Amino acid sequence: MSVVKLEQSRERIRTELDKVVDFWLKHSHDTVHGGFFTCIGRDGTVYDELKYVWLQGRQVWMYCRLYRTMDRYRRPEILEAAKAGGAFLRRFARVSSSSGQWKCAFCLTRDGKAVKVQRTIFSECFYIMAMDELSRVTGDKDMQLEAEQMMEQLIHWVRVDSSGLGRPQLPGDVATNSMAVPMMLLCLVQQLTEGRGQEVVQKYRELGRWCVQQILQHIQRDGTAILENVSLEGAELPGCQGRLQNPGHALEAGWFLLQYSAEWGDEELQRTAINKFVELPYRCGWDKEHGGLFYFLDVDGHCPTQLEWNMKLWWPHCEALIAFLMAYSQTKKPELLDRFSEVYEYTFSHFSDAKSSEWFGYLTQEGKVALDFKGGPFKGFFHVPRCLYMCERILDDVLANKD
Which residues cross the membrane (predicted)? Predict the structure, then answer.
């Protein structure tokens, strides 16, 4: 890509980010009960009032990150929305579990009553992200302490005793290393340690190393595949679960590893991240006939059992844009920029909506819009704005240092 093309891409990304932010500011705020609506149609109409804790936490985090790090978003309405979202989370998201530990609900009614609790760690993960980032813009040390306390509980669930999650131990259930778990813990380590000083960095140093090693266990079949689930010992699992590939997840893990390798000056990890978690899932996951990334694949070529396996979803393409641009910014290898350009062209020509501000999320294999809503139980104010935000900032740096 030429400098002119890079500048044009940055301008398009900047414009798209402004439009996406405006969409959620306009349509998602519940001014009666607090928190955010996420089930939003193409025209901005709220079609379901349930509130999903993953997406509540993500939206608080995203508002705060924009407010804290980009001058044009240092606007009172963004800060107030983040604070209102944080207050809703602190009041309603936490529910007491049978073990006496605090669990976060997965889903709440509009006025904050718990509807569903998942037996996983992810609602808590996004609660931590929200509280830590909100503490940074408000100066509220209680929020930071709350985030760190919940982090300790997560670490205990993952590495010591998972019974607090409420999942029964069944005789036929095989313990697995699902890549999502160490990925999210590594993301939280990076969140909690950013700019906090050496004492906090060292507190989570061993955990960060452990997360990286757990992620690297997913490199399987002599380095030719990234598998989503492996055994606790890092071996391939039998059946569909063991053969499952999720190209978008691998790409997201790739840029998490790139951030970690840059922080610690680990060149070997950087090479592994690019070769195995960025380039490899792209080669395996890109639809050579229609373009775009498949959602799921089976490493042996069987039809995946996930019904949406061949659809093109918004978030894997967001992760691919970040991963290739970050990889290029660290190495200056032109082929990585070429890959970014290919993903960019597909993403902006298929997911971006000329008639409405927010992106579509779900396309058919052929690239046609399958579901035209702009937000739902899993699509909120996160993957699209995080991608646009990060790509704009990386491009700022690339263009500032372009020969």
Answer: none
